[in-house]
Each structure stands twice: as structure tokens, then as C-alpha cells.
Amino acid sequence: MFLILAIGLIALSVTFAVLFIGEVAPGRQSALVTRLTEFEGADPETAETLRRRRRQLRAEKLAGLIQALGERIEPGRKDISAIRLRMLQAGFQSQAAVPVFLGSRLALPIAMGFSAVTILGVLGMTSFVGLIATVWFSAMGYVVPSIYVGARIRRRQKEMQRALPDALDLLVVCVEAGLGLNQALVRVSEEIDRLSPSLSEQFALVNLEIRAGTPREDAFRNLGERTGLDDLKSLMAMLVQTDRFGTSIAQALRVQADTLRTKRRQRAEEAAAKTTIKLVFPLVLFIFPAMFVVILGSAIIQIFEALGR
To answer: Around 101, how many Cα atoms within 13 Å sit in the side-chain half-sphere?
Structure first.
């Protein structure tokens, strides 16, 4: 019961926080919205476009408010480089990603704590329960942005890790066909886009950095840092050594592709071996009690009836 109440309070607090900030922020309609208002009742498609545009404006207004709050905090932080690296690993390439992250870690606890106080006051909760709930919601609002960024990083890394052996196979084929390394990276980024958009984007960024004048070694190292993936870091280190000593790129890529394919198979075998351990908890908590009720239920009822007589 308490868990259901907590989940409901979380949803209500986030909703009230968004509505509160949207009402407090200055509300100036753009010329486009003003013009679309004139045609709101004329055409259903125009009305839907207007509503979509208004939702977009509210989201931009809220993001701008949080970004302005984060820009005030940013100069006093010493870990800006680490936060920016985490934002890059999560796929947020914009310069406004760090201020928005810092602003959300400040605005969300305040909004959720205020919403918890308001809701619990309306429900008539005691002051002690209200204090605990306010502290809990505020702490959760502080850690939610970090949890979201971490989950996004893990999801992107898992996606790139699955697609990397196939990308290396394509890279070997392109290099052996006579393409240079830069052209091969461009070709692989185009072909691998359906399998892993994140990896395709990173390969395209490497090529853009090299074309912009960045040394190839620095571009490769930047790719490893942007992804935070150990397999990509080892691949980039191998390419740097190959480029420095003039050895065969195709042979090195083939060896690396075989290694990554072996690692992928070993990870699959490890996940399969963990399945039996993970099944213990559902068996003990859900399946075994149901089996005991079905098997022993009638016998227990008969025993109680016999003892009652």
C-alpha cells in the first residue's frame, strides 16, 4: 500500500512541478502562435499543429529556465569536465547539456519537495510523515537525473558493443577492397546505421574531426573517450599503433574482429550461465508457493476438518 502511494505521489509531484514552473515562467507567445490562434477553429489540422507548437514552446521554456539555473551553478563546480564527458557518453552533444543537467539536479528536488509538502498537507498527513516524505522526494529528485544519464550511457554502450564486431568485419572488407581508412569509416558508418545509430554517429564524428584538421591519433582517442567502451578504446589504441608503425591495417582489424566476436560469444555464454541463478528468486517467491497451495491445499483443509471434529 505504501509503495502504491509513493508511486502515485511521485507522478503527482512531477506533474505539479512541471505545471508550477510553466506557470511561473514568463508567458510571451511568439508571432507564429498568435497567427495560428486565428485559425484554431477553422481547420482541425491547423488546430492540432497549434497544440503541438504550444507544447513545444512550453518544453523549450522549461528547458530554458532550467538551463539558466544551471548556468548560474556551473562556474562554481570543479567537476565540469567529468560531467561533460558523461553527457557526451550519454549522447548529449549540445553545449547546453551540462547546464540543463546541473539545473535539473537543483530544480527537481525543490519542485518535488514542495509538491510533496502540498499533497501531504491536503491529505492530512502528520508532520513527521510529511517531513520524511519531503526529504525522500527531494533526495530522489536529486539522484533521478544521474540515474537517467547512467542508464542512457549503459544502453548506448550495450548497443555499440553488440554492433562493433559486425562493424569491424565491414571495415576489414572495405580496407581490403582498396579504400583508405577514412573512406572505410565513412562507408561503415553509413552501412551500420540501421544496426547501431550510436556507433554510426561516432564513426562519422571521427571522420569529421580528421577532415577538420585534428590529428588521426587524437581523433581516435577522442572516440574512445566519448563512448567510454573498453572494446572501442582497445580498437582505437590498435589503430593508433598501426598508423604509427606502418603495419597492415587489414590484418590488425581482422585479428581485432575475431577477438571481439569471441568476447561476444563469451558474454552470451556467461548470460546463459547466470540464468539458472536468476531463476531461483522467481521460483522461491512465486512458483513454489502456488505449487504448495495446489498440492497441499486440499490435504490441509481435510486435516483441519478432521481436527475440528
So the answer is: 26
Closest by Cα among 201, 197, 171 to 185: 171
Q: How large is the angle between the packed helices 181-191 and 197-211, nearest 10 degrees?
A: 150
What are the distances in angstroms from CA 24 to CA 123, 137, 180, 193?
A: 25, 21, 56, 42
- Work out the angle at residue 23's Cα, subtended by the Cα atoms of residues 19 and 29, and round it to the nearest 5 degrees: 120
Q: List Cα–Cα distances, 242 to 15, 56, 228, 231, 299, in angstroms.
A: 54, 48, 21, 16, 74
Q: How far apart are CA 43 and CA 224, in angstroms?
A: 51
Task: Give pLDDT tens digits for 209-237.
Answer: 888 888 888 888 888 888 888 888 888 88
pTM of full prediction above 0.70: no
Question: Taking a C-beta distance cutoff of 8 angstroms, is the pair 10, 17 a contact?
Answer: no
- What is the rounded distance in angstroms from the CA atom of residue 192 to the CA atom of residue 195? 5
240 alpha-carbon distance from chain centroid: 30
Which three three-digit cell numbers place residue 209?
574531426
CA angle in degrees (0–180, nearest 5) for 202-203-206: 90
- Please give the Cα distance from 92 to 199 (Å, whole number): 14
192 neighbors 163 (Cβ within 8 angstroms):
yes
| pLDDT tens readout for residues 69-121 | 777 777 777 778 888 888 888 888 888 888 888 888 888 888 887 777 777 76
Q: How far is CA 213 from CA 208, 217, 225, 227, in A?
A: 9, 12, 19, 21
pLDDT band, very low/low/confident/very high, at 24 (cuts 50, 70, 90)? very low
Q: What is the pLDDT of residues 290-304, one digit of tens each?
A: 888 888 888 888 888
Measure the CA–CA gap between 176 and 167, rounded to whole angstroms.
14
| Mean of the per-residue pLDDT values of the chain | 77
Domain residues of the chain, as ranges? Answer: 2-125, 156-275
- Give the C-alpha separation, 16 to 258, whole Å: 53
CATH topology of domain 156-275: Receptor-associated Protein (1.20.81)
